[in-house]
Design a protein that fits this description.
This protein has 201 residues and is an alpha+beta fold. 55% of the residues lie in helices and 12% in strands. The chain is built from eight helices and four strands. A hairpin with a 2-residue loop joins strand 3 and strand 4. 15% of the residues are buried.
Length: 201
């Protein structure tokens, strides 16, 4: 009977408690910083910690790209990393795969951009992520265009307001500064959406 087998195996761990009353194990998330500590125990005992920082930047870029294009967390992506001095990336490729949700990882000095791929630059390398099979590209284009149209209207309204001397000359400085801050933020979002749309074409 299986419970008896597992109990017998548990006894081999020399636990003070019976398996029946032992606490459930606690799942602990391992941070990038903790992996760095394990990977680099000290000077002269591993790779340069600065190289791990490069890899951490790459992981962040992959995660940001996944979030930007709404790739489901459970879906694995393929990635192509292109650049020079790729030894640190190669050494930590398993970390990259795990933390970036990457299934097939290509590390190359001269690989070309895959078809239908988005790109990001981080850690001194260029990262390509093919979107085929991950998202509905046409639906994403429609969604982004709709969002862009809305942001463009908002930007135009802020520009019109700030172009009105009656407002800028008579409103409190804090109010004018607040509207300018809104415009900067909205304009940044507008550029970001335009870049996303450009990557999908």
């Amino acid at each position: 009977f299986m419970p008896f087998v597992t109990t017998k195996l548990w006894e081999s761990f020399d636990s003070e408690k019976m398996l029946l009353i032992e606490d459930w194990p606690q799942v602990q998330e391992i941070s990038v910083e903790r992996i760095a500590e394990v990977a680099y125990p000290g000077p002269g005992e591993g790779l340069d910690p600065l190289n791990f920082e490069r890899v951490k930047e790459i992981v962040t870029a992959v995660r940001t790209s996944r979030a930007t294009y709404r790739i489901e967390p459970k879906k694995k992506v393929d990635a192509v990393i292109v650049g020079d001095d790729l030894a640190p990336v190669e050494a930590l490729k398993d970390v990259l795969r795990s933390l970036g949700g990457i299934e097939n990882l290509t590390i190359s000095n001269n690989a070309e951009k895959p078809e239908d791929a988005i790109s990001a630059i981080a850690g001194g390398v260029t990262i390509y992520i093919p979107l085929a099979g991950l998202i509905d590209t046409e639906a994403e284009k429609i969604r982004l265009q709709k969002e862009l149209d809305g942001v463009a209207v908002y930007v135009a309204s802020l520009e019109k307001k700030l172009g009105n001397k009656g407002f800028t000359d008579n409103a409190p400085e804090e109010a004018v500064a607040k509207e300018r801050s809104k415009l900067d933020e909205a304009s940044g979002r507008q550029r970001a959406i335009e870049e996303q749309l450009g990557a999908l074409k």
